[in-house]
Amino acid sequence: MTEKRRRRLPRQVREQQIIDVAVRVFSKRGYHAASVDEIAELAGISKPMVYLYLESKEGLFIACLRREAERLVAAFQGAAQGVVTPELRLRAGLRAFFSFVSEHRDGWVVLHRHAAELSEAIAAEAAQARRAVMAEVTDLVRAGIAESGGPARLGDEDAEFVAHTIVGAADSLTDWMAEHPAESPDGMTRRLMNMIWVGMRNVLDGETWTPPPPPPPS
Amino acid sequence: MTEKRRRRLPRQVREQQIIDVAVRVFSKRGYHAASVDEIAELAGISKPMVYLYLESKEGLFIACLRREAERLVAAFQGAAQGVVTPELRLRAGLRAFFSFVSEHRDGWVVLHRHAAELSEAIAAEAAQARRAVMAEVTDLVRAGIAESGGPARLGDEDAEFVAHTIVGAADSLTDWMAEHPAESPDGMTRRLMNMIWVGMRNVLDGETWTPPPPPPPS
Amino acid sequence: MTEKRRRRLPRQVREQQIIDVAVRVFSKRGYHAASVDEIAELAGISKPMVYLYLESKEGLFIACLRREAERLVAAFQGAAQGVVTPELRLRAGLRAFFSFVSEHRDGWVVLHRHAAELSEAIAAEAAQARRAVMAEVTDLVRAGIAESGGPARLGDEDAEFVAHTIVGAADSLTDWMAEHPAESPDGMTRRLMNMIWVGMRNVLDGETWTPPPPPPPS
Amino acid sequence: MTEKRRRRLPRQVREQQIIDVAVRVFSKRGYHAASVDEIAELAGISKPMVYLYLESKEGLFIACLRREAERLVAAFQGAAQGVVTPELRLRAGLRAFFSFVSEHRDGWVVLHRHAAELSEAIAAEAAQARRAVMAEVTDLVRAGIAESGGPARLGDEDAEFVAHTIVGAADSLTDWMAEHPAESPDGMTRRLMNMIWVGMRNVLDGETWTPPPPPPPS
DNA sequence: TATGAATGAGCGTTCATTCAT
DNA sequence: CATGAATGAACGCTCATTCAT
């Protein structure tokens, strides 16, 4: 028998093991298609342990949500640490995001791509987790423009609009990144900064794009 | 029997009725949490009819996927019809997208936000549906820059990068839009154009954003 | 294969079959120890049918409770039909009870002997079923004494006390009866009437038993 | 650690503590719905202790059964101690019963109202416990009638019939008593003696109640 | 003496799917 | 064209019981 003898582990360790596995499985299958059986088996324990420590499938999923949200927020905050110019702070944030997704793709999927299939109870928790992430970005944006001499009248609306644009773009680009494995988080960041930095300034400065005049008939 | 006798309807009509309901239900519940029972009941027919016409739950979902993808692609194509300048074509495409989501939110959700919970068979179909949409946008982008005197050497990579950015931003902004019901598709489009048009030109022209020099020590 | 081909039966018939079996199983095992699996198997159908028709294990048990309570109350009422003197009405009621228990022992067990293990939801239903039976007896008692020239001041309390005595005695005697199979419902009734008729008159007439004086010391 | 450290207690004490709790829990929930987890927690010890001392859930229940039966039998015997006339001995026994139920309702429930849900092994034990109680009452009845000049030919059958009547009535009256909290064991006893004493004499003397003649037609 | 860690087995429930009419 | 009747298979969850310390 090559089977590993299950060693008795203290609760905290087992709990993290379970959550580690659960994030992977939830990410791969989605909430409903994931089965507690599979999670338990991959974690090398029996089902009742999962229930003993995490209460229910819902509880397990929420634990995953919370941990991954905390990790991502921590990544943001760590990245901005000590960076002074707003431009560079945004860059650092984006780089942190792309690094996080590179290294914790499952975590990001669990956090961001399960809205449709969740029970009301979980949906609330998920919304809050996503709001926490979005808030970090919004802060980055708002602080950025404020410090860089932007208009004081910057509204919440505009900042949130920009944040949604950036997060959505970044999220979508994780797919692109998956198809271009050579691309590093640094490269992604440079590309995306290039694409949005100027536009962001436009929006936050209140400049408005207007349709060009129709070309003169030849 | 006061109950209304269902009239016997030709197959095509019934099929569309079923798909209409199914899109709503799949959108609200997600693929796994949606039950064929509920769909049949809301469609006012018995379960075996669903299987007679759509083969299986998977078949039903795929039918939904295809129809909504077709509708969205058609919306893009209709919007670009007769519009000459690339800038305006992009604008028209975005406006079509936001209109589609405003009016067919369920369709968009089914198309775009169920990646995680799908069986392999469906996932392939879904990926293709999304690729079809992404291809439309990529074409818009590529054509745009080509006509507007952009570099001939424009790589597929860059165009796809930009397309991912735009689609991701637009997708994410549907959430923002849902929280700001006063905003019209036209308004959304102007805001987003403002944010990305210049950056897109930068990227496609090969200009690169570089980190600013560190501020001089005080 | 001697296995009987399951015939397709209309809902009402199947429902009664299921309840028939369920009463037997609940009676033998008690609510918690009874398994829906066993009930389904003995009924010759699959588990989902039970849930389709009876909603849940609780629903199934409540259906049993209701049907048996109705049957017993009907037996009481049928027995009293056309009997004029109160004494004979009580006798008829008791005879009906003993007949019911002889022929539907399981029904009586389900009705009367499961108080301890029921969920709050079911306990309420069970209490009501038992109250319905007790009410029949109380009426019998009250009507009896009233017509036979008993005191007008007969209180609800006394009538219920007597009813409890009679029902409790009769219930307990079903055990005795089970150990004396030769005894007929008629015989049981005569024995029990003999035992309680006079005492009942005493109680309802307000006569009170008093401890006899201590025997004179020798 | 503000938590009180459980003191190590000698086996006998712990055992009684566990049984105390178990009687309460079994009474409230019924045998199957009661969980060893709950009992252990309420007893303030860990589950393995329960198994160490009582072997199994069955063993625990049987221990409860035995202790409560012993207590009730002791109560009967203590009550009859030194009472000479049979009438008063019966009265004393009934009073002891009602007192016991007033003070140990849980014990009585465990003893008497769980027939339906017990495993064969336990059912036998429970039947024996109930028989022990019934035997006490039967003795009371038999002794009573014998001493008071009743017929020598008194059969076991009759005595047991009477005992069943009395025990069943008394049991059922515990419900009535629960709804009339003002009633004391003494009051219950007087009421019940009033109701059954004469009838009991009738039965044991061999007198038979006969249906009255039909009323003359008017 | 005492317990935290762990599990095999089973139960209530649901769901996609099919059969017979 | 249309459906009421029926089920195999799986899933979430719990429980009595034991092991290792």
The CATH class of the domain at 66-205 in chain A is identified as Mainly Alpha
Overall, the morphology of chain A is: elongated
Helix-strand makeup class of chain A: mainly alpha
The CATH topology of the domain at 66-205 in chain A turns out to be Tetracycline Repressor, domain 2
The largest contact between protein chains, plus residue counts on each side, is: C-D, 58 and 58 residues
What distance separates the N and C termini of chain A? 83 Å
Short characterization:
Chains A, B, C, D: Keywords: DNA-binding, Transcription, Transcription regulation. With 218 residues, the first copy, chain A, is mostly helical.
Task: Reconstruct the topology from this structure.
The structure is a homotetramer of 218-residue chains.
Chain A: H1 11-29, H2 36-43, H3 47-54, H4 57-80, H5 86-103, H6 105-112, H7 120-147, H8 156-179, H9 185-205
Helix pairs in contact in A: 1-2, 1-4, 1-6, 4-5, 4-6, 4-7, 5-6, 5-7, 5-9, 7-8, 8-9
Chain A binds a DNA duplex (21 and 21 nucleotides) through residues 6, 8-11, 14, 35-37, 45-49, 51-52, 56-57.
Domain HTH tetR-type (chains A, B, C, D): 12-72
Protein name (chains A, B, C, D): TetR/AcrR family transcriptional regulator
DNA-binding region (chains A, B, C, D): 35-54
Explained architecture:
- 4 copies of one chain form a homotetramer.
- The first copy, chain A, is mainly α.
- Chain A has a domain at 66-205: Tetracycline Repressor, domain 2 (Orthogonal Bundle), CATH 1.10.357.
- The first copy, chain A, has helices at 11-29, 36-43, 47-54, 57-80, 86-103, 105-112, 120-147, 156-179, 185-205.
- In chain A, helix 1 packs across helix 4 (57-80), helix 4 (57-80) packs antiparallel against helix 5 and helix 4 crosses helix 6.
- The longest helix of chain A is centred in the middle third of the chain and has 28 residues, at 120-147.
- The first copy, chain A, is elongated and about 65 Å long.
- Chain A binds a DNA duplex (21 and 21 nucleotides) through helix 3.
